[in-house]
Amino acid sequence: MSYLLPHLHSGWAVDQAILAEEERLVIIRFGHDWDETCMQGKTRPTRPGLEDTPCMDEVLASVAETIKNFAVIYLVDITEVPDFNTMYELYDPSTVMFFFRNKHIMIDLGTGNNNKINWALKDKQEFIDIVETVYRGARKGRGLVIAPKDYSTKYRY
Amino acid sequence: MASLADSFLADLEDLSDNEAHLDDEEADVADMEEDADGDIADIEALNYDDLDSVSKLQKTQRYNDIMQKVEDALQRGSDISGHGTVLEDDPEYQLIVDCNSLSVDIENEIIIIHNFIRDKYRLKFPELESLVHHPIDYARVVKKIGNEMDLTLVDMEGLLPSAIIMVISVTASTTSGKPLSEENLKKTIDACDRALDLDIAKKKVLDFVESRMGYIAPNLSAIVGSAVAAKLMGTAGGLSALAKMPACNVQLLGAKRKTLAGFSTATSQFRVGYFEQAEIFQSTPPSLRTRACRLLASKSTLAARVDSTRGDPTGKTGRNLREEIRKKIEKWQEPPPAKQPKPLPVPDSEPKKKRGGRRLRKMKERYAITDMRKLANRMQFGVPEESSLGDGLGEGYGMLGQAGSGKLRVSIGQSKLAAKAAKKFKEKPYGSSGATSGLTSSLAFTPVQGIELTNPQSHGNLLGGGTQSTYFSEMGTFSKIKRP
């Protein structure tokens, strides 16, 4: 799944990618591309905490074509590009951050951390909704947007 | 009394006068009938007992000649050698043209005989003619039943569909007919035999035409096959007649009009005639059959027109048309193109289509802020507002019901649209056109003085329609300080 999305292999590439886009939202996923797919991850034993990334990648890849008019998605491997690990506090298996016109956009998801989405969103439509809300708010000049769904109870199923 | 009797007598005379008139009229009618007899001799002839005066075709020389030739030709087998390009001179072609007109004549003859049989058999079994429509089937059934009164002894298997046989048996048990006399019966059976003979002759003619079809009309037979082509030509009355017909008529040649009793109409093909037997038609799926029939009819008409002028004796045009038809039918059966996943449009790039107009304004009026709410939203300077729970708790009432305004109730006030309408009415001499509702009363309850009489209109426009400021109004307590 991760082979469908463009990868960025250096800190400079990440910067360039964020600067280059003027009209569209830039979505960057910081994490690892492992071989396991989301489906297989259920049957094969995976390392704890690492099954998030392939799931998120699958969602991102399937959504990329649909939202390509207003958002572009890049993947960054944090072992390959460790430059941002401390700056953005990238300690989770998968982290998704949003940038618009060289500005980082915060989202109020209810989890307490407004800077990023640090778990795997399973639902494509939810993700599209979040991206659209971020895009609308960013275009208006807002630095913080409120997500349509509240994720404060994310860990309680 | 005498006058009454006289009047009765007079009446009697009148009656006799009437009778005299009636007699005259009857005489006139009789005359008319005699005249009519001469004119409608043909129809009268059906009542004659003599079949031969009705059905003369089989006695004619022409009929016998042609039948003889047809028999010979059928014996000889198909003889398609180069007859030269000029078709009209060929004796076989002439024979075929004759056959076509003959088949039309035979058909008319069969109808006449059918009428004859029907009239005779009406005395025996009147309902049969409405149950069995086809003349040949009718003749067969009549022959089978004969003079029998009990239809359970008659075996009609193979002649008719079982449903019809059942209906006939049931109807026969309650029929009002009586058995025919021996002579009548013999004549009826004769007529039936003759009808069946004619039917066989017609079949022979059609077979002959069919065998020669590839030679007469190669293009038409290339599309629909020689059997259907022969039938079409036979019914139309010749190739040139067929070519002159518009395609919509060609489509209906040979269409059965009535669905028979007891059969469901759900399966009956609508507007399909001989084309139903064509191979192309049989091989199309049922949902496309109507379209295919229309296409077939139009292309066959084109082919018939080519044939009637001998434009293409090889039949190539026909084969091309057949290919065209086949390709078109295949194209209809293609699945629709797969759906492409479309990316979402950029949010907020397409501005919402805002509507306007009278309808929208009226709709918005329903949710607009009322004057009462406006009054409640504002407060007078220096005057504490009343609230629903008293003492500043609960919802505040603002300027609603304050001293000086004099009223707890605020009249509705005119909406903007109603104002426009009211303006129109103003010009007409209808009298006062005030917008006060009929529910406003002149009585008002004030906290200070109790009940007071006020002019309801003056407080309806307390806010001045939202255009005048109420801070400096005459009625407000800011500019007028009341002294006790």
Q: Would you tell me the overall average pLDDT of chain A?
A: 87
The helix/strand class of chain B is mainly alpha
How many domains make up the 3D coordinates of chain A? Answer: 1
Give Rg of chain B in angstroms: 47 Å
Question: Would you tell me the overall average pLDDT of chain B?
Answer: 76
- The value of Rg of chain A in angstroms is 15 Å
Cα end-to-end separation of chain A: 27 Å
Q: Tell me the fraction of residues in β-strands of chain B, as a range.
A: under 5%
Tell me the number of strands of chain A. Answer: 6
Identify the CATH class of chain A.
Answer: Alpha Beta
In N-to-C order, the SSE pattern of chain A is EHEHHEEEHE
Helix share, percent of chain A:
25-40%
Per DSSP E runs of 2 or more residues, the count of β-strands of chain B stands at 2
As laid out across the biggest beta sheet of chain A, the strand order is: 1-3-2-4-5-6
Percentage of residues in DSSP E strands of chain A: 15-25%
The main sheet of chain B orders its strands as 1-2
What oligomeric state do these chains adopt? heterodimer
The largest contact between protein chains, plus residue counts on each side, is: A-B, 11 and 7 residues
Distance, first to last CA of chain B: 109 Å
